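I hope you will forgive my troubling you with a question about protein structure. I should value your view on which stretches of the chain appear to form regular backbone elements. Here, with my thanks, is the record as I have it:
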Amino acid sequence: MQTFTANQAKAHFGEFLDLAQREPVRVMRHERVVGVMVSAHDYEAMRAFYADRLQHTLDEAAEAAAAAGLTPAAADALLADES
């Protein structure tokens, strides 16, 4: 992974964008990573991956709750409880 300082990214923005189309580019400020630039394609792939992972986790939680006897009515009552 290539690394640019924030100033380098600003001064060479075109190069920075071109490189980010090929691989993630780390951005450093004051000797710490403050961001990573990725291509739009990679970003959408990451969003899809995490959305799928979240859906899988929610499905597993729903199955476990149903197996433990949690009914939709009981879930609604728990969610409505403001105490």
